[in-house]
Write a structure and sequence with these properties.
Layout: H1 6-12, H2 14-32, H3 57-70, H4 75-87, H5 95-115, H6 122-140, H7 151-179, E1 187-191, H8 197-206, E2 212-216, H9 220-231, E3 244-247, E4 256-262, H10 271-283, E5 285-294, H11 297-313, E6 325-328, H12 337-340, E7 349-353, E8 367-377, E9 389-394, E10 399-401, E11 404-410, E12 416-421, H13 423-426, H14 428-436, E13 442-446, E14 453-455
Parallel strand pairs: 1-2, 1-4, 2-3, 4-5
Antiparallel strand pairs: 5-8, 6-8, 7-8, 9-11, 9-13, 10-11, 11-12, 12-14
Length: 456
Amino acid sequence: MASRSFGACVLCHPVLRMTCRRMSAAADLQSQIDFLQGQPHKKHPGVTKLKNLGLPDKLQAAALSVIQGAQVARLTERSRKLTNFLWSRKRAVEDFTLRKKAASLEKELWEKAMETPDGADEQLLEERIRKKVLSELRRTTYRWTAMKYDEELGVVYMAARLAGGYAAVRRAMNEIKKRDPSFAPQSLLDFGSGLGTVVWASHSYWGDSLKEMVCVDSSGQMNILAERLLKGDDERAEPPIKHVYFRQFLPVSPKFDLVAAAFTLSELPSTKEREEAVLTLWRKTGSYLVLVENGTKEGHQILMEARDTLLLTQEKTLHDSRPASVFAPCPHELKCPKLAVKPSFPCNFQQLYQPLRLPGLKHKEQQVEEFSYLILTRTEPVQAETAAVDWARLIAPVQRRSRHVHCRLCCPDGHLQHLVVTARKHSRDLYRCAHGSHWGDQLPVLQKADDGSQTD
């Protein structure tokens, strides 16, 4: 009797047959879904992270020229302190929050006074409690102050934030460039324009189409500084970016194709003013609204305030009834799951950049800008190639291990997920995409059961 081959025996085993069928099913599913769209795995459609970013040569040269001419004393030390101050900055405490806290403190102090009466006159006791309440509020309340930039502080801000701010804005706008390649804006509004980094970042992507760029900043000195960066040393020379206009107030122009506010909402003193600013900017948005803030809890929460304002209000503007929809980074329009986790951590991202080379100092070859961003759109959301593919956002560094990859994702169903991707469970293509992806990229997640994931 002839013996059967080893391969035949393997295929006869019921457990192995089931495993083979599952692997075959995964391969069949994968072959039907072309989420790669002809791209190599390391450059799949969800990759939006940029490599080490440097300032445009003309911007770098102009900035160094301004810094050398200003001769600001202790520039390095002051720029470092300003960076730390801006990073640790919090929102101003709202009046109703202060009143609520004061009432709670007053009630607590009165209860203690009643427990151990000392025979003091009631009026004197009331005055003593009032002073204690005021003293405690002064001690524990964050003192928010508006930033006022004169020429010297503007130069310090340039040394501290020009390169990092440019990197964050450029990375955020790359989402639009990569996922909506047909978008060719003709007009741009930059609210709280500061040094003009939004103009430079936008011009790097859409320089051929932009015909009008309006920069609005309440600081006249900042506008002067931004204009000097555009013109460089020779004021008579043709600027590298044309059609840029500086204002201290919002223009009456009804619509701009692209509207941006980078590190601006955090400079407004109240929730009401931030809400009004966001609604005003949205009324002026034709296609995309881009908001960027520091990658801190405060920055993230400010952006989530803006997101809720626009999604819940759904204000219809004159001649444009298209509602707001989230373009990036959120893959859904539900409540941010990161805010529901205790302790909460901000939804932020990182971008490598080359720092401004200050004269006479040694610098690292690259630094990291940590930022949060939000892009909303009036255009129809981009539809997936097939309903069997969902795009999730990588919200933490990808951990690559032997034959598997740990991915922490924010998913389209509004949940956080820890997905362990393997070639066996998720197909070779998906495994290679995950292996080549980075924090901030999107990752295709095939709709399959039993994928080895953990939902938070």
